[in-house]
Amino acid sequence: MIAAPQPACPSFCVIIPMFNEQSGAQECVTTVTAALRKLENHTVLVVVNDGSSDETGAILRRLNPEPSSFKLLEHSTNQGYGAAIRTGIAFAVESGFDYSLFMDSDLTNEPSDLGRFAVEMKNDTDVIKASRFVKGGGMRGVPWRRAMVSSLGNRVASMLFSIGVHDCTNGFRAVKTSILAQMQLSERGFPIIVEELYQSVFLAKTFAEIPVILTNRPDTLRLTSFTYDGTTIRKYLGYALRAFVRLPPKTTA
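Given the sequence above, the corresponding structure tokens read:
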């Protein structure tokens, strides 16, 4: 009996923005590259040093993993999370990776979950979101106020997006690079995550979620720059409402 051919392993790059993360930069790179080496996929870690004013850039430049497994991109000045994401996407498009996977530098996203993304990539899924709000997912050590806002906000966003995604604001996600190449993303900060999902509603056909446990940012690192302020909430809700009324975005398609 002839065995059925196994689906090819899609290639992907892991894009991690960094800003003033000198206390955790080396651990991030070594931990993520170690996780990637366990996978069959062709992968590379792409760190975007977003104009750090501390020793982050120097630490990253001193690291010497296998040249094919780590790529450092740098902004001369701090431009924001969204700009770093766009720089990473441009590299993924130019390099021809099948998927672009985004995660945070503080390892609150578990690197071992990269294998779960790789499994879903074999299914040719367009957009893969990590989710705290499906069976098997959750939060550990996250301040209760932030956890409550996240939970309530994502319930609303999930209803408005109506694509079966329960964790719309989670930055741990993978998207086909060919889809990202069609987007015109403009947000400078964290709302780019929801802007990206909004545009995916019109460009992607399939969505999937994988359960993850989000942990709190370690005390050894600087305080997080993310806050649920009025501007962030307004932008998140704005993109969800545009998706709800099916207002098409401007794209390069």
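The CA atoms of residues 49 and 74 lie 5 Å apart. Try to locate this feature in the token string yourself.
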